[in-house]
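Question thread 4412

I'm putting together a teaching handout and wanted feedback from people who do this every day. The idea is simple: show students a protein as raw sequence, then show them the structure tokens that encode its fold, then repeat with a second protein so they can compare. Below is the first pair exactly as I plan to print it.
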Amino acid sequence: MAAAGVLLRGLCRLCRVLLFLSQFYILSGGESTDIPPYMMKCPSNGLCSRLPADCIECKTNFSCVYGKPVTFDCTVKPSVTCVDQDFKSRKSFVLNMTCRFCWQLPETDYECSSSTSCMAVSCPRQRYTANCTVRDHVHCLGNRTFPKMLYCNWTGGYKWSTALALSITLGGFGADRFYLGQWREGLGKLFSFGGLGIWTLLDVLLIGVGYVGPADGSLYI
């Protein structure tokens, strides 16, 4: 019995040592258990033709005719599973799409970064360089992230109706200019009694047609 007890304790110690060594091996990078980042976008057992572009790899042909239907041979990335129309598991499939580069897509098919440092109210209207990314479910040729020149179209929350109402009612005291963040012009109207009424009438006209806008260069809402 004593010998059996010693043998049992020895086996327990050996199991602890093996468990420690296996955990150390995994933590040291000997066996990777990380999930690929693209898996967060890939639905399990969904239709292969509807997988996001990050989940598949396709043999594209850049010599296709723009705007014409085209088919490409595609394979799913490792760890991704999908099915065909008959609900059979597939690793490779044919993808139907329209021949066009990502930067040629309609504006509804991609998202672009915005800028609050350009003047949305200016003549001529200013542009800024935006970084655009194609939506996950849209397939196209070339880089899915691309730069594009866009018109400044951000807003700081100023209402055109409020600015016009202040210009008509309290424009002689510079309330419209103060509201738009134009403090110098507001003080000038205040101490000149609206430019003896002439400045007030001009501001009503200029704000009414949208020529005078917020001082930060944003658009009205």
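The second pair follows. I'd like the answer to focus on this one:
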Amino acid sequence: MVLCYLNSNLYLVQKSNISLLIKLSSFRDIWIFNCTEGCQFNIITQGFKINNLSKIILTSLHINNISGLLGLLSSLNLIGRTKSLHLYGPVDLRYYLDLGKKYSRTNFNYVIYLHILKTGLIINHYGCRIYAFCGKSGFEFTVIRPEQYGTFFLDKARCNYLVPGPLYGKLKKGMSFLLPDGFTLDGVRLTSQNAIGSHLSCSTDNFYCRRAIENISNGNVLLLL
């Protein structure tokens, strides 16, 4: 998993003007939290393609968090985007989008799915789960990615005369088997090292509260939005 603050040079100046990009390993899709001014320029500068953007999550409708949204959506339309885009935000986000399209006289040639944020699970894709919690200054999020099993070495399995079947899946999970002749099949020796899971807490609040403390204590990374 790749984490990147798109406007890190502004982080120390103004905390409420932050965009965070997430890219999962082995997938081209990228997700961003908040769409600040110049967001699309920052995405390109960091070496990513805006057409790979699949999800935009807005912590609140503060102008600092949405100032680059309409420009980014229009740019996606200009480059000929056809695949759908998912937007997550407070309930009034749809009115902002409707007014923006009306006064700019712009229609998008791709489908935009609007998801209203509520407390609970909001995203469960590619083995990554994102939970939303309603805070005082906006929504807060917890990103959980479980441990991923390593790559199974087919050549080693064939060298041990193992026939393809359900046994391969169990060995990939690291299970061990004791054969009648006393020989031990150790799944750990037949797979690469597992990818460590992650538990990220994304906070938008400057004040301590019970939920924030619990999220921080259960996670291994704290991110400020």
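Top answer:
Good format. For the second protein you could add a caption like this: Confidence is low (pLDDT under 50) at residues 10-14. The longest helix spans residues 93-104.
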